[in-house]
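Appendix C. Worked example: 6-phosphogluconolactonase
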Amino acid sequence: MNAAVSDRITLVRHANPEAWTDGVAKEMETVLAHEIEQRGRARMLLSGGTTPAPVYETLAELPLEWARVEVGLADERWLSPQDRDSNAWLVRNSFLKHAEGAHFDPLVRIGKPLAECVHDANLQAQHSQPACLVVLGMGNDGHTASLFPGSRDLGWALASTQTYAALDATGCPVANGWPLRITLTPQGFAPIGTRLLLLRGQQKLDVLNAALESNDVARYPVLAAINAPGPRLRVHWCA
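Step 2, the predicted output written as structure tokens:
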């Protein structure tokens, strides 16, 4: 493991995928254990996708008091939590079914309209223990969570004063046929003490460097997580 610190991010390079998986899971365990020791409970926000799934599986095997851990989502597709393409399904099957006792709060509630789900998510964010940790990914287009460049609601979501916002990514190819989303906003990133961005492959590192050089958050929304106040974004990368 090799960490490089800049004034904007901490880039942690891992020798191989196994070291990457173990290193990220161990850092998450350390953050959660410290929060439990200090506050009695810990809350974290997770992202979907295939990249973090091995990390979640490894984390669930570590000896934490999972009954003291609450789990939420950084974003979600407008799908039932039981749909295999939802982030909720991935988190349940890669993490929750192994971390016995952990409590999960999905963003989508069956039978409720999108606006009401967003309202409920923001109410919960206001009244729950603040998240101590968020795990993020990044697409090759520079999006993170569901903040997609070129989406019609991006400007509104970036300027929102709420923790979560609805976003319509119609016309964004990487939305993969699920344009309606609920996403964490820059306001939502800001109070989280540990923000982890998980990247694999040279192309993702090139996109990250392009984002840092451009400093154009509308083109590279991952900058919303990089530029959020507080501790530097920690980027875990391996080839």
